[in-house]
């Protein structure tokens, strides 16, 4: 229970959600002149369309103040589910309802590689709706939290000079500077070192307390353990289990061990 037994306020409702990726031109001879000619001769209008049915009828309700872990083996539909909750992917059937604005913080979240870390902090904060005054107030805290400048003045260098871990840390620090109604985090924590991971876990706890709901996708079971009290386990696009993190992780760890 998220709030110690008081009224629980739903923030995300997924109702029988199916998500299907359509892959155009996935057939043999894709894009070549011969395949185009063959299509014309056979009077076929478009190249073959393949479908990947990534999420198959999932339903759950997440509440205000909850941090929910999403686990499952590779390709089980975790990132797809997050992107759909963020409103970035349409559902083939079923519905997702969110109360408030969902923000997806993924490993691929957009940053301008040719601009300095400093510029990216400012742009990122403005994009999240902060005023210049707020950005000025938060700037140093964001840089310190990211630890980017621990070994030199990296924040004045273009982002393309950063390692993938450094870039991920800066992205997380920018996103974490604001309270979110629904914060969706895709693997962001696994790239940082232990000290950064500890800081970000602490920050997720604060974000959760200050407002909304956090979803965390991770292959790092310890991150899930330390951050989320509830975990949803996806396998082949279906919810295999949903419940208290310790119970679900124990089942999942056993499943992964047996599969080896
Ligand atoms: N853009 C895409 N186009 C087509 N199929 C996709 C696309 N993205 C993912 N898929 C497919 O959807 C399924 C679920 O992928 P998804 O990335 O959601 O899994 P995941 O659980 O996040 O995996 P991982 O742990 O490896 O990150 C997989 O079969 C994958 O091949």
Automatic annotation (TrEMBL):
Residues of the ABC transporter domain: 35-260
Q: Name one GO molecular function term.
A: ATP binding
Q: Which CDD domains match?
A: ABC_KpsT_Wzt (cd03220)
Asked if ATP-binding is a keyword of the record, the answer is yes
PROSITE patterns the UniProt entry points to:
ABC_TRANSPORTER_1, ABC_TRANSPORTER_2
Superkingdom classification of source: Bacteria
What protein family does this chain belong to?
A: Belongs to the ABC transporter superfamily.
What is the designated name of this protein? ABC transporter ATP-binding protein
Species annotation: Streptacidiphilus cavernicola
Lineage from the top down?
A: Bacteria, Bacillati, Actinomycetota, Actinomycetes, Kitasatosporales
């Amino acid at each position: 229970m998220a709030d110690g037994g008081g009224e629980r306020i739903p923030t995300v409702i997924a109702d029988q959600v199916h998500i299907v990726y359509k892959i155009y031109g996935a057939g043999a001879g894709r894009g070549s002149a011969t395949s185009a000619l063959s299509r014309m001769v056979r009077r076929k209008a478009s190249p073959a369309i393949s479908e990947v049915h990534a999420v198959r009828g999932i339903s759950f309700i997440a509440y205000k103040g909850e941090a929910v872990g999403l686990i499952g083996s590779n390709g089980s539909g975790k990132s797809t589910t997050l992107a759909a909750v963020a409103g970035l992917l349409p559902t083939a059937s079923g519905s997702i309802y969110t109360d408030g604005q969902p923000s997806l913080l993924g490993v691929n979240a957009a940053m301008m590689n040719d601009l300095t870390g400093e510029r990216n902090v400012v742009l990122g904060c403005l994009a999240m709706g902060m005023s210049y005054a707020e950005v000025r107030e938060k700037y140093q805290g964001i840089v310190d939290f990211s630890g980017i400048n621990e070994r030199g003045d990296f924040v004045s260098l273009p982002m393309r000079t950063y390692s993938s871990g450094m870039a991920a840390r800066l992205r997380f620090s920018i996103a974490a500077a604001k309270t979110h109604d629904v914060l969706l985090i895709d693997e962001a924590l696994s790239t940082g070192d232990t000290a950064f991971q500890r800081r970000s876990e602490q920050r997720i706890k604060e974000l959760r307390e200050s407002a909304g709901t956090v979803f965390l996708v991770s292959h790092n079971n310890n991150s899930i353990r330390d951050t989320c009290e509830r975990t949803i386990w996806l396998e082949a696009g279906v919810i295999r289990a949903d419940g208290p993190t310790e119970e679900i992780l124990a089942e999942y760890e056993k499943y992964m061990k047996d599969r080896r």
